[in-house]
Amino acid sequence: MPSNDKRHWKGWYKLARWERRRQSLFAEQPLCVKCLERDEVTVADTADHVIPHRGDEDLFWHGELQALCAS
Questions:
Q1: Model-level pTM?
Q2: pLDDT in 10s for each residue of the chain, 71 residues
């Protein structure tokens, strides 16, 4: 998706496709992985790209995600 706007990818987060991917992650991994490392149980609410995509469309849609909480 070529664009002069360096943050054109921000719109991808508003797509139904992203919401399906996000919800699929939470179905498989409902708890925050960082909290679990500290033996804390916290419901995840953020789908985080393990490797930051920095606008790379393939990495955005196919890169590994991890479930995190807002904190």
A1: 0.84
A2: 444 567 889 999 999 999 999 999 999 999 999 999 999 999 999 999 999 999 999 999 999 999 999 98
